[in-house]
TrEMBL record:
<dbReference type="InterPro" id="IPR051150">
    <property type="entry name" value="SWT21/TCAB1_mRNA_Telomere"/>
</dbReference>
<protein>
    <recommendedName>
        <fullName>WD repeat-containing protein 79</fullName>
    </recommendedName>
</protein>
<keyword id="KW-0853">WD repeat</keyword>
<dbReference type="Pfam" id="PF00400">
    <property type="entry name" value="WD40"/>
</dbReference>
<dbReference type="InterPro" id="IPR001680">
    <property type="entry name" value="WD40_rpt"/>
</dbReference>
<dbReference type="InterPro" id="IPR015943">
    <property type="entry name" value="WD40/YVTN_repeat-like_dom_sf"/>
</dbReference>
<keyword id="KW-0677">Repeat</keyword>
<dbReference type="InterPro" id="IPR019775">
    <property type="entry name" value="WD40_repeat_CS"/>
</dbReference>
<feature type="repeat" description="WD">
    <location>
        <begin position="340"/>
        <end position="361"/>
    </location>
</feature>
<comment type="similarity">
    <text>Belongs to the TCAB1 family.</text>
</comment>
<dbReference type="InterPro" id="IPR036322">
    <property type="entry name" value="WD40_repeat_dom_sf"/>
</dbReference>
<feature type="repeat" description="WD">
    <location>
        <begin position="281"/>
        <end position="316"/>
    </location>
</feature>
Length: 469
């Protein structure tokens, strides 16, 4: 039986009739190809320009309404577990997931297990679903076993499965350069290397593509480096910064750079790839881990580690936050959030496993903060979907589907390694009724968190379900 999450709240408007997003993409391929050949010459990396296709899709596609039934219906799931022969400190938990720009597959990073590409089942490309739909078990079609910690990853913005040359992503990981991977066979296409002043290769902490997809912007400890996508290797331009670049958000010619020193810097990027500083935004209490512009480009949303707030900024008046939204983040791990392509919904997970949704038509999270409002948590919907940290959320670009990932690093309880015969109160935690004092019960409660582990990637249906009352 399918898993259905339901909450109490106001109902939203019904979902419009959906369009098959693959048919939209296929109809625009004719505008790029003529007699089976690309209109533009292929680059060194094999990527062709697909900007015209994206513009056509935006003109004809109407994004469906999300959460009309105030429910989440589980569609598919995949999970990872540690091998019996693996060491105890190796934990394969999810560290992020992102839908491809064409919506056909989802890219996820698993700790100590590299990068996985998971396809969306074909029956979900169009139409609706019923409450009795069987939950699919997802298998990775591509698995890149990257060694070391993956710092950041990003899809090519013009990715289209009908044009294989555009199907790729880039990653940056520990002790390695920026690498571009093929999404069809998982092969390595090329690398982009950044070298410091003593000619030592150093890994980028964060990466992103420019909006048109012609440049790769990489953030390092004290410098921003820009690579030409068509010229792999060590050719790059530099712009010095005062602190490490932990995350990026791009919008047209604007670049927001988050930092571990709790600030966000705004830059204007010229056509030549040079950076002009606009200003800095202060407000977070921890290092900024994720930032994203709203589709209208006027607002920026940012989140930080061990900071329970999502800050909404108006980039025209960036001296102070425009609004503050509440979520639970009790870890240094990056906890992703996402904004729907229509700009109406803001969705975020948290270390409590709860998925929170803000609907701009019910909670005006884009307007200025009301200091007289005593209700800080003005969330529209709450879905308790994971028993562990919900660290990543990604909204499908065309369909009413949300991908979520769970997991975090759990420390081993040191008291379980003690001799069972040792008269220690923590050795009696198997039976809570034997605990004699409130202090002992509090200690037990503090240590229980490490036992609730869940490492999964789940697809949820957020659209209309006809037979749910």
């Amino acid at each position: 039986m399918d898993t259905v999450m339901e909450i109490d709240s106001q109902n939203s408007s019904g979902a419009p009739e959906l369009i098959n997003f693959l048919e939209i993409n296929s109809s625009n391929v004719d505008k790029t190809y003529s007699d089976g050949e690309p209109n533009e010459s292929e680059s060194v990396t094999g990527i062709v320009n697909t900007t015209c296709e994206s513009d056509c899709i935006k003109n004809v596609f109407e994004y469906p309404s999300l959460f009309p039934n105030r429910t989440l219906l589980e569609l598919c799931s995949s999970s990872w577990s540690r091998s019996p022969k693996t060491k105890q400190n190796v934990q394969p938990y999810l560290r992020g997931c992102k839908w491809s720009p064409d919506g056909t597959c989802c890219l996820s990073v698993v700790n100590n297990d590299g990068v996985h590409v998971t396809e969306l089942p074909r029956d979900l490309y169009s139409g609706s679903v019923t409450a009795d739909r069987t939950i699919d078990v997802l298998d990775s079609i591509i698995h890149v076993k990257e060694a070391g910690l993956v710092y950041d990853f990003c899809w090519y913005p013009g990715m289209n499965s009908n044009i294989p040359e555009t199907c790729c992503w880039i990653t940056t990981r520990q002790n390695a350069p920026i690498q571009m991977w093929d999404a069809f066979d998982g092969s390595l296409r090329c690398s982009y290397r950044g070298f410091n002043s003593v000619d030592e290769m150093e890994p980028a902490l964060s990466i992103t593509f420019s909006q048109e997809g012609t440049r790769i912007i990489a953030g390092y400890k004290k410098v921003l480096r820009t690579f030409d996508v068509e010229r792999p290797g060590r050719d790059f331009s530099e712009h010095k910064i005062t602190s490490s670049a932990s995350c990026f958000a791009t919008n047209s010619n604007l670049l927001a750079v988050g930092s571990w020193n709790t600030t966000i810097s705004l830059y204007n990027i010229s056509e030549m790839g040079t950076y002009k500083s606009i200003g800095k935004m202060h407000g977070h209490s921890g290092g900024v881990t994720h930032a994203k512009f709203t589709p209208d480009g006027l607002r920026l949303v940012s989140g930080a580690r061990k900071d329970h707030r999502l800050l909404v900024w108006d980039i025209r008046y960036y001296r102070r936050p425009l609004n503050i939204l509440s979520r639970v983040v009790n870890t240094n791990q990056r906890v992703y959030f996402d904004i729907s392509p229509c700009g109406r919904y803001l969705v975020s997970g948290g270390t409590d496993g709860i998925l929170k949704v803000w609907d701009v038509e019910q909670v005006d999270w884009k307007s200025s903060l009301d200091v007289t409002d005593v209700d800080i948590d003005n969330v529209t919907f709450k879905f308790p979907i994971h028993r562990d940290c919900c660290n990543s959320v990604s909204i499908h670009p065309y369909r009413p589907i949300v991908a979520t990932g769970s997991g975090q690093y759990h420390f081993t309880d040191p008291f379980t390694l003690l001799d069972e015969n040792e008269p220690n109160i923590l050795n009696r935690q198997m039976n809570p009724e034997e605990l004699n004092s409130e202090c002992e019960q509090e200690i037990l409660q503090d240590l229980r968190y490490s036992q609730n582990t869940e490492n999964s990637l789940v697809f949820w249906w957020t659209g209309s379900v006809p037979d749910i009352t």
